[in-house]
Amino acid sequence: MATILNIETSTEVCSVALTKDGETLFLKENTKGLNHSQLLTVYIEELFETAGFDKNELDAVAVSKGPGSYTGLRIGVSVAKGLCYGLNIPMIGVGSIEAMGHYVAENVADYYVESNENLLFCPMIDARRMEVYTAIFDKSGEMIQSVTAEIIDDNSFASLLAENKILFFGNGAEKCRETLTHPNAVFQGPEKTSARFMQKLSEKKYNQREFENVAYFEPFYLKDFVATIPKNKVLK
Hints:
- The strands form 2 sheets. Strands 3-2-1-4-5 form a 5-stranded mixed beta sheet, sandwiched between helices.
- The chain is globular.
- The longest helix has 18 residues, at 70-87.
- It is of the alpha/beta class.
- The chain has helices at residues 36-51, 70-87, 96-106, 158-161, 199-207; strands at 3-8, 14-20, 23-30, 60-64, 91-94, 119-126, 131-137, 143-151, 165-169, 185-187.
């Protein structure tokens, strides 16, 4: 039994959800771009105002730990750490891919896909070009292939697709649709990450006392950060 603030900033989505006992009470999110530095703390304040909720009633803060956007993850983790330090409450790290996979497996009926014994779930977070951050989950929501950075080609997931229907979803899935043409490849489900996907996992981790070291916690980037220069800044 816990009241948890969930923060999701691993992609272009800035999302916060207040959950109690694993159920979402209030949700505030923006899906239209990387504006996390401007929106995140504002959304948290608005969430508490809407809920009529005092921060001191929080039991923990859960934050998406990656993989995903380097900048987005840094912002989310920094805000989570500040809240946990200030309120003297524990911090919970929830994998971005894990939250999506677990949520869709639990709520497969919402996505109009017939559930069967051979149905697998493959959330994808865009990692530029034809690369995605991904993992494979079974119908119970258990991860059966660990999170990796995959460059998608015609042979990707071939052995699994030969024997299983795979549901691909997330903001990295659409660009793979023309490449993954196997009859067992289904593209359906949520396109965006959301803090509400974290609710059951953050509650479970709270109950099992799986807390992060606030001082030393770092996001799971999976790949090294590579800075890019906007085209309009390149000298001719």
